[in-house]
Amino acid sequence: MRAHATSIDELLLTADRLLTGQHLPATSAGRYRGASLALRTALEIAVDRRLTSAMPGLGRLSGRARLLCLRCYTDAETARRTKAVWSHLCLGCHYHQYEIGPSRDQVRAWQTEVGELVEELLADLVQR
After folding, report:
1. Residue among 32, 30, 3 nearest 111 (CA)
2. What is the pLDDT of residue 5?
3. What is the pLDDT of residues 19-63, one digit of tens each?
4. CA nearest 51: which of 59, 61, 62, 42?
5. What does the pLDDT look like over 79-102, one tens digit per residue?
6. Is pLDDT above 80 for 6?
7. How far is CA 49 from CA 20, 26, 52, 62, 125, in A?
8. Contact, 32 vs 103, CB < 8 A?
9. DSSP letter string, 15-74
């Protein structure tokens, strides 16, 4: 179980490094997409842990199905916020020629939201 918590922490740290790492050999757009992917993965791990603690096997569902199930195992507002930021992150980490990627400020806002949601999703799991 501790390995998952470390993975989440490492992913959040990776996102932060990508957002602040001006000396990395990548474009700013690439760093922002990479940060979006790290944040989405951290959020998905937190959702998986929440669902698996409630009912083993739910973590094997698709991303959208897990988000639908989340409403049964957390409050409605947390589930809504999780789905909303996950959807934004999905768009932010995919490259499309005809779209401008996410801005640094957008990814920073998503980073804040993901940090709060990870804490909320995992808060009572630590107490068990």
Report:
1. 32
2. 55
3. 998 677 778 888 999 999 999 999 999 999 999 998 888 777 888
4. 59
5. 999 999 999 999 998 877 777 889
6. no
7. 29, 32, 5, 14, 8
8. yes
9. HHHHHH-TTSSS-HHHHHHHHHHHHHHHHHHHHHHHHHHHSTTGGGS-HHHHHHHHHHHS
Q: How far apart are CA 88 and CA 79, in angstroms?
A: 14
Q: Give the amino acid at 114.
A: V
Predicted pLDDT of residue 78: 95
Question: Residues near 32 by Cβ (< 8 Å), separated by ≥ 6?
Answer: 18, 19, 92, 101, 102, 103, 104, 106, 107
Looking up tokens 């490259």, which residue turns up? 95
Q: How far from each other are the two terminal CA atoms of the chain, in whole angstroms?
A: 12
The SS3 of residue 122 is helix
Return the number of other C-beta atoms located less than 10 Å from residue 29's C-beta: 14
